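Question thread 4412

I'm putting together a teaching handout and wanted feedback from people who do this every day. The idea is simple: show students a protein as raw sequence, then show them the structure tokens that encode its fold, then repeat with a second protein so they can compare. Below is the first pair exactly as I plan to print it.
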Amino acid sequence: MALHFEKAEFASRLARLTEKMKEEKLDALLLFAQESMYWLTGYDTFGYCFFQTLVVKSDGTMALLTRSADLRQARHTSILEDIHIWVDRVNADPTLDLKNLLVEMDLLGARIGIEYDTHGMTGRISRLLDAQLTTFGQISDASYLVSRLRLVKSPTEVAYVERAAVLADDALDAAIRLTKPGADEADILAAMQGAIFSGGGDYPANEFIIGSGADALLCRYKAGRRKLDASDQLTLEWAGVYAHYHAAMMRTVIIGEPMQRHRELYNACRETIEAIETVLKPGHSFGDVFDMHARIMDERGLARHRLNACGYSLGARFSPSWMEHQMFHVGNPQPIEPNMSLFVHMIIADSDTGTAMTLGQTYLTTTDAPRALSRHPLDFIGL
């Protein structure tokens, strides 16, 4: 079996989940988020692009409903034993198969929580599911129940995050070696991803971000490559990935002589991220982190150029995004606890002058000050 955790750890996670389910008065939970299934059982697949769900009862009983293509995947990568297959056919409605499975599991009339807020739950599936279950039992939105349990990492998870962080550093080293006037973004991107694969890492849950010139102000991937000019700016956002655990980083690299505006924006990023380190610890909330970000940026006159979030929790994630639900934005009451892996990013896009500057790295929280997981300092990078 291709398991990344000891069975005792899976048992501990299931016990924590069922305890929480009892607190929430849930008889069963329908998991549609692949990261929830992976965390709970080890099940590793991209088959969530089709209908599948893991049924978890409050007594710890689990049953997976999936397609035939994932039968062996589930057997090989997870601790699951009870696996059911719905059959691909014209006008198939796997939610009917699910309802029949729930009857077999004695859940008629039960209180059932559902993970709605996930990429494994399309609008069509949601409508079909509600049509089948609205009169079957008492259904409720339990999208964040497992997500919150996953926030605090176990020692094994921390080790995977640390390994991912090493791979992220290796990717930055590979990028810097190639970055110079005339360098092709395609070669830089290939070197970064290649460093992670060569180090035993995995595909990221979303594309690496690379953009130079005017594209350096973007904070999403887009198709198309260009070669660097003698004076240029190159924004990179990427993640080292190991056993699906992510450690993200972000930098804007300046090629040639930096403009004064580059220096000004870098100083704002550096000052803000160092100030955030003073509140990225127990006794503070995710909202406190954002408030620190907004206060410093706004005092420097950068309110129009900053974003409305400055980072998020990281962990084991699947496509299309490595971002967890818990983000640093205004009013988020989520407390910071030890052993959270949190990505803090400063992103400034000054469209008035066409100037970009970013700075970001992943931290592991402790009982006091956070620990940066990168071996690279937060220094200005000019080549």
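The second pair follows. I'd like the answer to focus on this one:
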Amino acid sequence: MTVYFVGAGPGAADLITVRGLRVLESAPVCLYAGSLVPVELLDACPPGARLVDTANLTLDEIVAELTAAHRDGLDVARLHSGDPSVFSAVAEQIRRLDAAGVPHEIVPGVPAFAAAAASLGRELTVPGVGQTVILTRTAARATPMPDGEDLATLGASGATMVLHLAVQRIDEVTAELLPHYGADCPVAVVARASRPDELILRGTLADIAALVHEAGVKRTAVIIVGRVLAASAFPGSHLYSAGRQRG
């Protein structure tokens, strides 16, 4: 028996990996985040599979479901939105499973920031413009940020920044980043990336907050800040350079 933490992708049902889909098709138990995971994916579950929506469950209740499946010798597909490696709350579940001696495995998925970049038609690492991407969020009502990971500190690097779970604080975000990136720095907000109702807002640190408020975006959005979003005059990469020694 194994609990498989499966990255379901950013929203479009066909962005789950082949490996993730195979786990889903064979697991007799599936726990899924109902508010975030596309319901179409559940059609891939085996007939008669136990389906549990975890949207309103506590950690204790979720772990109870996983350990019960372990006692019954049943594999579990634990569906998480995006990729389990970031902002997924997988770590705390794994800690409990390790303590209980329950085997587990992680199946990666397409993260929301990757889907957002794809929708924008942009690479987030552009030669000569930006080679570092910071994935972060803001505190607000969520878990407090560790010391040294505030936006002012991170923004001092000038690196391309991707913010999850922050669109409700767009005014504070732009105010904190503006001194480091400049008012004219390109910003994009992608809400519900890859879904049929996806919404893309493009602007700068000077006007993106107003665009977000006007559009009424309050959740399920990624904010991307950086010069890479508008880069055009940049050197070609060394990878494909005619001057690179090959062979």
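Top answer:
Good format. For the second protein you could add a caption like this: The beta strands are 3-7, 29-32, 50-53, 76-80, 104-107, 133-137, 160-164, 186-191, 199-204, 221-225. Residues 3-107 form a domain with the Cobalt-precorrin-4 Transmethylase; domain 1 fold (CATH 3.40.1010.10).
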